[in-house]
Write a structure and sequence with these properties.
nine-stranded mixed β-sheet; binds flavin-adenine dinucleotide
Length: about 450
């Protein structure tokens, strides 16, 4: 494969797929179908605000929007462009709960906090939908998420998860779909049953983040792009510095997640950035698209290295997966196409138009990592693949905590987290080994 364009973290490839066609030399499918993107200025002066937010993805924008709606003066600094990180490139899937599932979540945080966390995850999806509706964000929101079991032991686990959520949390959004009924939803023989979450769904992630930015700007947030934060001077009023300006604030929100890099080493140690890729087929046409997926629901499977897919508004299949710890060696292309054909062999003649990747921040226990550094620096990161909905509640509870009401934030902040072993130098190679083990386990 030939690399046709490279920017700081996103590489794009051109190559011949097995069908003999070339992948398009454009950014991601999302870039090619995004609404017009405003240019926000870079910070070139020294300013003073109530809150300085670092990072222009869902977490940062959601916190900035909530804070501005509460009447605070907010500046948001983004190193690249709004939505440049995971928020502009992800699978767009909205699912209730947390990456380890609620049975394991209870073991980690206890029954009472697990119930609170569950409730927050349900609220997160509701809040996201409310924001889309209130701010009229045009982002192809669709309903339904199928969590599909790739083997019998996973089928059993999903049934136990459903039972726990029904009995303990009275959640009625889940429906069990037997393998025999799956052809009404998805035309593949890979799954031994699936849990349908009627409150789940999917959206165009880049158009959603652009809509959030428009809403934040409307609410008075001062947004700066191409403004990388280089240092944070702590104190009663922290000073946040970029190359050409400084922001003095009462509070700082760190929302750089997998892309924060070394700005705060304490945060970096708690997460590992794992690469995941997506390919987009050519438009399949309504008939062929509906022959693959009969409802609007998206699908994620239960493997540790999960595959996830859905139809786009113009009837392409967007197929994601193939995580690689800390590297982009598994960049989408023929490898991911092979995964897609394992699920849908009937797509062998279909052209792949786009291939891209991004980083997901994963914690050791796969629950999100929220906290404070000192009294006035807040952070939220490590949603471990559930950040589309969870980032909305992260922004809300951080904003509430900054305004003096920390009960919600503290439910997340008391989730116990351990650093990854190996320090910043060895944690990626160590996780690569672990991922290799899990890939092997998925295969077996
Ligand atoms: C390919 C892919 C598929 C995914 N699929 C799903 C899915 O289907 N469902 C789901 O729930 N989740 C999914 N995720 C995860 C989800 O996208 C993330 O959890 C979510 O977008 C995180 O949002 P965020 O705002 O916290 O971080 P990001 O969107 O990554 O934003 C962080 C921003 O901070 C900026 N930044 C970093 N350091 C600095 C600095 N020093 N100064 C200024 N700015 C800085 C970065 O440039 C970046 O724009 C996926 C992720 C990827 C990559």
């Amino acid at each position: 494969m030939e690399i046709v364009r490279e920017d700081a973290s996103l590489q794009l490839y051109s190559g011949a797929g097995k069908s003999g066609s070339k992948y398009k030399m454009i950014l991601s499918y999302y870039d090619s179908s995004a609404h017009p993107r405003p240019d926000f200025p870079a910070l070139t002066e020294n300013i003073a605000v109530d809150v300085c937010v670092i990072g222009g993805g869902y977490t940062g924008l959601s916190a900035a929007l909530e804070l501005a709606e509460k009447g605070l003066r907010v500046a948001l600094l983004e190193a690249e462009k709004i939505g440049w990180g995971a928020s502009g490139r992800n699978g767009g899937q909205i699912a209730a709960g947390y990456s380890p599932g609620m049975i394991d979540t209870e073991k980690i945080v206890g029954r009472a906090d697990a119930a609170r966390l569950w409730e927050f995850s349900v609220q997160a999806a509701q809040l996201l939908k409310e924001r889309i509706s209130r701010h009229r964000i045009d982002c192809d929101l669709k309903a339904g998420e199928l969590y599909a079991a790739t083997r019998d032991s996973h089928r059993q686990w999903l049934l136990e998860e459903q039972e726990l959520c029904q009995q303990r949390y009275h959640y009625t959004g889940y429906r069990w779909i037997e393998a025999a009924d799956l052809p009404d939803y998805v035309t593949t023989e890979r799954y031994s049953g699936a849990l349908m979450d009627d409150n789940g769904g999917h959206l165009h992630p880049l158009n959603y983040v652009l809509g959030l930015a428009a809403a934040a700007r409307e609410a008075g947030v001062m947004i700066y792009e191409k403004t990388r934060v280089l240092a944070i001077e702590r104190g009663a009023r922290p000073v946040v510095s970029s190359a050409a300006g400084k922001v003095t604030a009462d509070f700082v929100v760190l929302a750089g997640n997998a892309y924060l890099g070394g700005l705060e080493s304490k945060l970096a140690a708690k997460i590992i950035p794992v690469s995941t890729s997506i390919i987009a087929t050519e438009p399949l046409g309504v008939e062929r698209a509906r022959a693959l997926m009969q409802t609007e629901a998206c699908v994620a499977d239960t493997d540790f290295n999960l595959d996830y897919f859905r139809l786009s508004a113009d009837n392409r299949l967007l197929y994601g997966g193939r995580d690689q710890a800390g590297s982009r060696a598994g960049m989408a292309g023929d490898g991911l196409r092979a995964n897609m054909l394992r699920t849908f062999p009937q797509l062998a003649d279909v052209r792949i138009d786009f291939a891209w990747d991004g980083m997901v921040a994963v914690t050791r226990n796969r629950l999100p990592d929220f906290g404070r550094m000192g009294k006035n620096i807040y952070y939220a990161q490590g949603y471990s693949g559930q950040g589309v909905p969870l980032s909305s509640i992260a922004g809300k509870v951080m904003a509430e905590a900054i305004c003096g009401e920390a009960a919600g934030f503290d439910v997340f902040a008391r989730i116990p987290h351990k650093s990854f072993p190996g320090g910043t130098r060895f944690r990626v190679p160590l996780l690569s080994l672990a991922m290799f083990y899990y890939r092997l386990r998925d295969l077996l």
